[in-house]
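3.2 Worked example (two chains)
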Amino acid sequence: MMKDFTDNESLPDTGEDDAEIIAQTLQMLKELDNTPLTEMSPLFYQHWFEQLNMATRDLLRILGHDPDA
């Protein structure tokens, strides 16, 4: 079972900025999950690809990895 990281206090050894990035990423995933099929246009996919790319890079950095490696 995955740990729920929806509040900053439950995040293991992250700074405030990192906790905010994680919270924003969780919110973004909820928005994606709740998007109706009728709103999933090519522009939608382009936008969310960029958003997911940035979030993944931030999460890799938080985990101690170089996203450019």
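3.2.1 Second chain
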Amino acid sequence: MAGNKNAYVEANNLMSAVERQLIREDNVVEAKWTLAKAVSDCRGALTDEEYAAVLERSCRLMSLHCGNHEQLEALEAILDWLSDADIITEEQYARIVRETDCGRWL
């Protein structure tokens, strides 16, 4: 499948914007939902390799700033949505949770 170069650039630009928002700890849950929806939306527009790169980066970003049970519950709701949509695997779900600050204590 041929990828849409604009979709790949847009996905990376969005992830960079979300990453800046997460670093500032500004509306973290909203930023993660934005990221999840973007990953879902770009799935058909990218090559398999591009999508894998976008998904991997998104998984790393999802684990940022999750140090208490409220943040973990919000993250799990996002991950449940991604899992139900067959966007992430059970292994990816578990890895994201494990890599959070909160998950390291579990």
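3.3 Remarks
The mean pLDDT is 91.
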